[in-house]
Amino acid sequence: MKSECVNMIKEHPFKAHPWHGIPYGDKAPEVVTCFIEIVPTDTVKYEVDKATGYLSIDRPQKYSNIIPALYGFIPQTYSAGRVAEITNIALNRTDVEGDNDPVDICVLTEKDITHGDIIVKARPIGGFRLLDHNKADDKLIAVLEGDAIYGAFKDITDIPIQVIDRLKHYFTTYKDLPGDKSPRCILTDIYDVKTAHEIIRRSIEDYDNTFRNVR
After folding, report:
1. Whose CA is closest to 107, among 78, 64, 73?
2. Helices (H), 65-119
3. Rounded CA gap, 45 and 27, in Å?
4. What EC number(s) is this enzyme filed under (predicted)?
5. Core-most of 54, 62, 176, 199, by most CB within 10 Å?
6. What does the alpha-carbon distance between residue 168 and residue 130 come to, in Å, rounded to a whole number?
């Protein structure tokens, strides 16, 4: 056991960058590894600093709404041309671009998980097509792998409407600031598990096309 630990340290002497150094999982897109940044008890929005890989304070939450699920991103994904193409096709547009971030994901679970900066295995079951300042900002919806309650859900239509409404409210208001005359994030539609899987495949292609030398 000691020799195995020594070998592991030699092969990986530094902490993996959450975006570039953690695999998305060999069962993707059906099951993916997610890096969780914030949880429902957080009153501050944390976000991975892209340069260092450490969590940083993005901003205090301006209002009382909280994220009703674990929230983070899928490592080694990227929202660029291939991801934006799905939004353009769905909306019959040509001007939408990717938001140049890893793909965001919400993970539903009946467990109380009290802090972020963790990795979890999750099964995507659908998603929200969101526009943020005219950029594709998809929010995938997933369930924690093996969860006692949500683990049986196969598609976003299995989720109670009350949970969907809470997620919709959060994502259409969480970036708004006092004095804003119009919402920053627009939800155009909700899609199923098949489309969620396609978003993941395309985001992996976008990542490989952009960061193929990072690996």
Report:
1. 73
2. 81-91
3. 29
4. 3.6.1.1
5. 199
6. 10
pLDDT of residue 147: 97
Rounded to whole angstroms, how far apart are CA atoms 25 and 142?
Answer: 15
Report yes or no: 33 and 75 within 8 Å, Cβ to Cβ. yes
Domain extent listing, the chain: 14-212
Using alpha carbons, select from 73, 76, 69 the residue that is nearest to residue 107: 69
Per DSSP, the three-state class of 11 is helix
Among 57, 94, 99, 120, smallest CA distance to 199 is for: 99
CA proximity to 78, closest of 101, 106, 99, 49: 101
Strands 118-132 and 185-191: antiparallel
Per-10-residue mean pLDDT, the chain, length 215:
51 84 97 97 89 86 77 98 97 97 98 95 98 95 97 97 94 76 88 98 98 73
CATH fold for the domain made of 14-212: Inorganic Pyrophosphatase (3.90.80)
d(CA 24, CA 100): 18
The residue assigned the tokens 């659908």 is 126
